[in-house]
């Protein structure tokens, strides 16, 4: 490959900018030309591409969001849209593409690789729902945001001897709830991967208050149910009336943590290296400290294993 492009797609995540920077500078360092695509696959179809130089990615490593903007594009899900996308890349003389996004965006990269464009997928999502990498870019920051919010809630819950239900993001994956719940000392963590008995949890919370506990924090992953519904059921079972906080999109914002910046920097540079080796259609990640490149097909048909050891630890320590 001589000329590559980079785009961000789907929901944004903190660290996407650090990944773009690493792709651009990693490519220029190796003598390649690099183009940025604005607004994901939509921008590709609109021929919204521009050449990037060293300075174009200055002062972004510390910024949340994505300077390339992101979008969801229905047209690109069709075979005609994908063919047009490949044609646009060829028109610009681009033979390699790095896609930073979630599993939907990976599907698009896979289609382009089947049309002869060399592609690499980087896991840019706060959800941590992509197999073949221990962590996705943005997850660490999203957990930090959630932990910070729960710390603040705990202050006021303790003063008033109240309980809180905190709804966190993650789509079908419970990792944000698990990590934020463990790190903030939540009494219960409700995730889609593990069945739970809400009646028993509610009665235990009532018992804990009787025994001198001064707050109760329940973290619920959005993939389980809404915080409102969980709180309503807790009231039915125990009479306790928890306050509900939905953290929402603040979890996708803010300056990325050093972990996310380092992960993004390593993976961005690795993507360029893989493209230069002539590899294509791979999802990249780091697992147990080692780089991995797995076929996108495998990643899209595999469910990331849930960390039951951490879950059990959180439960043991939550009494
Ligand atoms: P996140 O999980 O963070 O929201 P995502 O990448 O999964 O990110 P999606 O909205 O699922 O987000 O996908 C982003 C874009 O990728 C879509 O708008 C579409 O353009 C493209 N895409 C999704 N699925 C496919 C598919 N099966 N084939 C081709 N392109 C796809």
UniProtKB/TrEMBL annotation:
Cofactors demanded by this protein: Mg(2+)
Entry-linked InterPro entries: ATP_PFK, ATP_PFK_prok-type, PFKA_ATP_prok, Phosphofructokinase_CS, Phosphofructokinase_dom, PKF_sf
Residue positions binding Mg(2+): 103
UniProt name for this protein: ATP-dependent 6-phosphofructokinase
Record comment: activity regulation: Allosterically activated by ADP and other diphosphonucleosides, and allosterically inhibited by phosphoenolpyruvate.
Organism: Cohnella pontilimi
Family: Belongs to the phosphofructokinase type A (PFKA) family. ATP-dependent PFK group I subfamily. Prokaryotic clade 'B1' sub-subfamily.
Recorded GO MF terms: 6-phosphofructokinase activity; AMP binding; ATP binding; fructose-6-phosphate binding; identical protein binding; metal ion binding; monosaccharide binding
Ligand binding (ADP): 21-25, 154, 185-187, 213-215
UniProt cross-references to HAMAP family, sorted A to Z: Phosphofructokinase_I_B1
Sequence positions that bind ATP: 11, 72-73, 102-105
């Amino acid at each position: 490959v001589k000329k590559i492009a980079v785009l961000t797609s789907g929901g944004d995540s903190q660290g996407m900018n650090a990944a773009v920077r690493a792709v651009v500078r990693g490519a220029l360092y190796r003598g390649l030309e690099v183009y940025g695509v604005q607004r994901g696959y939509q921008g590709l179809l609109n021929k919204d591409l521009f050449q990037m130089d060293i300075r174009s990615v200055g002062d972004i490593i510390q910024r949340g969001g994505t300077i390339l903007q992101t979008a969801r594009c229905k047209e690109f899900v069709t075979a005609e849209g994908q063919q047009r996308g490949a044609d646009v890349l060829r028109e610009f003389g681009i033979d390699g593409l790095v896609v930073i996004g979630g599993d939907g965006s990976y599907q698009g990269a896979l289609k382009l690789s089947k049309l002869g464009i060399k592609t690499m997928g980087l896991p840019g999502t706060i959800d941590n729902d992509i197999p073949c990498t221990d962590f996705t870019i943005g997850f660490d920051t999203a957990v930090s945001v959630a932990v910070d919010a729960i710390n603040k809630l705990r202050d006021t819950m303790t003063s008033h001897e109240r309980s809180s239900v905190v709804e966190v993001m993650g789509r079908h994956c419970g990792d944000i709830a698990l990590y934020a719940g463990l790190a903030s000392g939540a009494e219960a963590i409700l995730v889609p991967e593990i069945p739970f008995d809400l009646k028993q949890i509610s009665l235990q919370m009532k018992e804990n208050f009787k025994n001198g506990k001064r707050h109760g924090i329940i973290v619920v992953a959005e993939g389980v149910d809404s915080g409102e519904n969980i709180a309503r059921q807790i009231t039915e079972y125990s009479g306790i009336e928890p306050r509900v906080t939905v953290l929402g999109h603040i979890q996708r914002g803010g300056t990325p943590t050093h972990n996310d910046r380092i992960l993004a920097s390593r993976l961005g540079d690795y993507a360029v290296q893989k493209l230069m080796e002539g590899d294509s259609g791979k999802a990249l990640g780091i697992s147990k400290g080692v780089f991995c490149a797995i076929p996108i097909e495998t990643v899209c048909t595999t469910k990331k294993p849930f960390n039951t050891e951490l879950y059990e630890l959180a439960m043991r320590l939550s009494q």
